[in-house]
Amino acid sequence: MQFSSDTNAQQGHRPLSRDLQERTFIALKPDCVQRSLCGAVLGRFEQKGFKMRGLKLVLPTRQLAESHYAEHAEKPFFERACRFLCSGPVVASVWEGRDVIQISRKIIGATNPSESAVGTIRGDYAAHFRRNLVHGSDSVSYTHLRAHETEAD
């Protein structure tokens, strides 16, 4: 069987109904970009069968970093986390699929890489909890808040 560029991979498959479609925001942090791991990390979500709905390279401002980490504003690591997020480019992406938020968080692994299972992104690539490569939304409401960041300007 030959494949061509006009082959429709979805042909013969019924699309997910609107109520089963879910979107999540995934951000590849500056350490992921610096280490040239973006392709490998994004590939994990593609291999799982999720559909990329948006992708954008962002140079985070201090204001964006503070907004991103707002829930941690009173914690001692807030300042350090904001500085880190502003230290280089971030790849912002939106993914769609059934249970994509829950499954993506499993693909990413625990926040602390030493507690992440082998086979997760952080378990395979990260070595320190302050440089854990990737952020994934933990709820639909958070996803909606961040999804606009990948919209075309």
Question: What this model shows, in words?
Answer:
With 153 residues, the chain is α+β, with helices and mostly antiparallel strands. Helices cover 35% and strands 17% of the residues. A four-stranded antiparallel beta sheet has the order 2-3-1-4. The longest helix is centred in the first third of the chain and has 11 residues, at 38-48. 27% of the residues are buried. The mean pLDDT is 86.
Radius of gyration: 16 Å
From N to C, what is the helix and strand string? EHHEHHEHHEH
- SS class: alpha+beta
Query: End-to-end distance, in Å?
Result: 41 Å
Strand order of the largest sheet: 2-3-1-4
Report the biggest beta sheet as strand number plus sense, adding barrel if it closes: 4 strands, antiparallel
Count of beta strands: 4
Oligomeric assembly: single chain
Overall spatial form = globular
Low-pLDDT stretches: none
What is the average per-residue confidence, as pLDDT, rounded to a whole number? Answer: 86
Q: Level of helix content?
A: 25-40%
DSSP helical segment count: 7
